[in-house]
Each structure stands twice: as C-alpha cells, then as structure tokens.
Design a protein that fits this description.
This protein is mostly beta strands and 411 residues long. The protein has three helices and 29 strands.
C-alpha cells in the first residue's frame, strides 16, 4: 500500500493487488456523505437509486434522482408505492417529489433515470387501470408527465430508443415486478414474449425478437428444462447499433447466456456464458465484472485475460472522458463489508475509496448493493449503502482530487 498526495494535500491510498485492497483497513478512504433523510425511528424512510449504469445525475451535476420507500426486509406487494423525485445537491439536499410507482423491485428499483439529450426523467410504473406496465416521463422544465406504453430497461445514448422486455415474466430473486401476471406462464418458450424497441418520442413499438426464436439458437436440440425461459437485461452499445440481452431460466443449475443482437433484431450471435454485471467499452467490446475482463463481440465467447486478479463479482463503470482509463467498482458483502474502489488501468493499481459495514440483509433479495455510479463529469459518485444502520440511504463521494492526481505508472 502506498499514499499519493494531491495538490490540495489530500492523500489517497493505492493497492497493488486485490487481497491487499480487501484485507486492509488503515487506508486513506474518500469521504462518504449521506444526502438522504432517513426519517425517524417511528417513521423511517429508505432512499436509493438501486442500480448502476444509468444516469442518476442531470448534466449539471446538481440534481440526483432517487426513490423513497417506507419498509424493508420483506417482499414488494402490488400496493407498495415508491415516491420518485430528485435531491438538490446545491441547496441543502432538498427533496422534490415528482411522482410515484408501483412497478419496482429490490435489486433494480424502477429503472429510474434521466433520458439522454432531453429534460425528461424516466421511471417504470403500472398503468392507472393496473392492466400493464408503462413508463412515466416527467419533463423537468415544464413539470408535466406523459406516459409511454411500455416500461423501459435501457435507453440509447441519443435518448431516442428504449429496449424493453416482458417484465411480468421475470422470476428470479429480487427482480419480480408484481401486480400483473405472466400471460404466457404455461409456455416455456413463447413466441409472443420477447424484446421490444420503443420510440421515446412517439411511443411506437417494434417487436425485435421472441423467446422462442432465441431458444432455438441457444438450444438447437430443443429446450428440455422444466422452467420457463425469459429475457432479463438488455443494454445498447454506445452507437445503438447492437445490444446485449440475457436469456435465462430458473433451473438449478440455472441457464444464463448473453447474446448480441442487432438493433433491428435480425442478426443474432452468441456473446458469452454467465453474464452478470457488465458495461460497454465501445461498440465491439464489453467489460464483464464477473471476470474483470474484456470480451469482444465477435461470436467466439472468448474472455480476454483479466486486467487484475479479482476474487469477487464487480459492478463496473468506466468513468467518462477524460478519465476513461479509470474503472469504478464495488462488491457484494465480503466478510461483513462492502468495498468501493477505483482501478487505474495504466498503473494497474487499485484505489480503495470506502470499506462500509453492511447492516442490511446480507444475502438474498432484501440486501442493499452499493451499485456505484458517477455523474457526467466523473468526479462525483453516488452509492446506496446501509453502513449507518439506517437501512438503505443515498450517499455521494467526491473523487475529483484523485482524478486530478492519478497514480504514476512507474510503481
């Protein structure tokens, strides 16, 4: 472990390997600041953003999106509402509520996010008549809300197109959207259920690929397992020409495979097995946190040598330019704590940012994952955490002093 001093005399620690990072506890950690109101002991409030790889901050970095809920450690029911709003980071962290949702889960929330290149804030909800899942789009400038006919999973970087799947069909732990039954529950590989593309301006829907079609590619001898296949997670590449999608089931052992699909749904090729937490580097390359390695979108499934030996499944994020040689990461609970860190690719050094005691449920669907994300400048981070024994709360971490003084590459 070594220390690096910034121009402001702020120091931070570096580690040469993963074991050094997770076993140490005398590092110069970054300052973690709570920005959410936990309520009172009698009326607690739990606040978070829930997931990573979506924009929590507006372009200016002033407003951070959040959802507030009022219980923990139990299943979400169809009547449980979350409050949607934003926190003003430059005005005493004042909270402004803009809407509600009954379409959320413990692991990924309601897919709350700023729509790129617009003034809209997006989140998933159930329609007013309860018949289907939809997306609410709140205009930050006009304070008006419109409703789009499908829920969103991932929105293209230009903000024009969203990918969506059959949210009622997701069944694995912590991902269930309750309140609407799976219309094809008794069909293991339905032709009517699949991935759709939604125009974010008009709400026009285009069906791209069915579970049945991908099942034939994944199981050329026929799908023989007893549990249903379904899509879970889609993500556009930076230019919106292709996207990754997960095909999975609930078998033991489970099937989870990653597939690369063209924007029109016509060209489909195998990507890699057991995808988990990933992020696109460019149009042809994904970084997979499970392997801490790059994988080319070339149909071979070849996992390149890892950037470092990391004994954990990481939630990765590439910081935006000019800091794109930094990887932001966090861990599940390891020996009672969660680690927040940076990895500097040129020097291959880890920078420990926080080591936080996990006081929420440590396993299972009620846990609180950090799921770190950055603002548009890359200099401010946000995490969900439970280390203050207040349940899920929202925090920011300023890392500008580290980015301004990166480690030297001659260690």
């Amino acid at each position: 472990m070594s220390l690096t001093a910034s121009a402001l005399a702020q120091e931070y620690s570096t580690c040469t390997n993963w074991q050094q990072l997770v076993r140490g506890d005398d590092y110069k950690y970054a300052t973690v600041i709570r920005i959410s109101d936990p309520g009172t002991k009698e009326k607690p409030v739990y606040t978070g953003f829930w997931f990573y790889d979506e924009q929590q901050f507006d372009v200016s970095g002033r407003y951070a999106l959040a959802m507030k809920v009022y219980f923990q450690d139990r299943d979400v029911t169809a009547t449980d509402r979350g409050d949607i709003g934003y926190i003003d980071l430059k005005n005493s962290n004042i909270w402004t509520k803009i809407g509600e949702t009954t379409a959320w889960n413990w692991q990924q929330g309601c897919r709350l996010q700023w729509r790129p290149n617009s003034d809209e804030i997006l989140w998933n909800d159930r329609a007013d008549d309860g018949s289907r899942f939809v997306c609410r789009a709140y205009n930050f400038k006009t304070a008006t809300t419109r409703t789009l006919p499908r829920p969103v999973y991932d929105v293209s970087d230009d903000g024009l197109m969203a990918l969506t799947h059959d949210f009622a069909r997701m069944k694995h732990a912590g991902t269930v959207y309750v309140g609407i039954p799976d219309r094809y529950e008794h069909d293991r590989t339905p032709a009517q259920s699949g991935i759709e593309e939604m125009n974010m301006e008009t709400g026009e829907i285009e069906f791209l690929i069915s579970v049945a079609r991908l099942a034939k590619l994944a199981f050329p001898d026929g799908y023989k397992d007893k549990t249903n296949l379904y899509f879970f997670r889609e993500g556009w590449n930076p230019s919106g020409t292709r996207f990754i999608a997960f095909l999975r089931n609930m078998e033991s052992p489970r099937h989870v495979s990653g597939w690369s699909i063209s924007a029109d749904g016509k060209d489909v090729r195998y990507f890699f097995d057991n995808p988990s937490h990933h992020v696109w580097l460019d149009d042809d390359t994904i970084f997979e946190g499970r392997y801490f390695a790059f994988i080319k979108d070339d149909g071979t499934g070849t996992i390149l040598p890892p950037l470092a030996k990391v004994d954990a499944n990481i939630d990765p994020t590439f910081l935006p330019a000019p800091y794109s040689d930094w990887i932001l990461g966090d861990t599940y609970v390891l020996d009672g704590v969660q680690h927040l860190f940076l990895f500097h690719q040129p020097s291959k050094l880890f920078v420990p940012l926080a080591k936080l005691k996990a006081t929420a449920a440590r396993r299972g669907i009620y846990r609180v994952d950090l799921h770190a994300r950055s603002n548009h400048s890359g200099r401010m981070l946000s995490i969900d955490a439970s280390h203050e024994s207040l349940g899920r709360q929202l925090y920011t971490v300023d890392i500008g002093y580290i980015l301004d003084n990166p480690p030297k590459t001659d260690h």
